[in-house]
Amino acid sequence: MPFSPVTNADSWVDELAEAIAPELDARVTIMTPGAGGVRDPETDEITGGEEPAALISDRAATSRNKGPGNEISGGDHWRTVSIYRWTILRQVGDPAITDGLLLKVVDGGYNAAITGKTMRILETWATGPVTIAIAKVE
Q: Is 13 left (phi over 0), alpha (psi -120 to 50) or beta?
């Protein structure tokens, strides 16, 4: 989709947000990780400790898998860790999305298999109306 000429130099962020909105097929919640709890990887439930707190709830986003996943050693076993690149639409007043926060997939959009998964944000950067986040499935 070609961009229309910028009619107001101050509104380019809004125009860009409007242009990318149809591509944002998923919904995510950004949370603090909480403290002291133990997460069960089978059920994705956290028990004990401080509950994660939502910083940004049910926000438009889209994801791209960064490859087939990496196999890592867990001491006595191997497991696959999947990494995703997220594009998350920002709004005025949003707190910064920083490394170490959690990303909970409310609706995976075209990638429905990741709905309900929790990911740890490894790296972020912001550009215009979006934040780009690299996250791994916890």
A: alpha
Top-confidence residue, 52 or 55: 55
Distance CA 106, CA 13 (A): 26
- Closest CA relative to residue 83, chosen from 102, 64, 59: 64
Residue 128 has pLDDT above 90, yes or no: no
Using a 10 angstrom Cβ sphere, with 0-12 exposed, 13-18 middle and 19 or more buried, the burial of residue 75 is exposed
**Per-residue pLDDT at 70:** 60
Mean pLDDT of the chain: 79
**Which has the closest alpha carbon to 128: 1, 21, 4?**
21
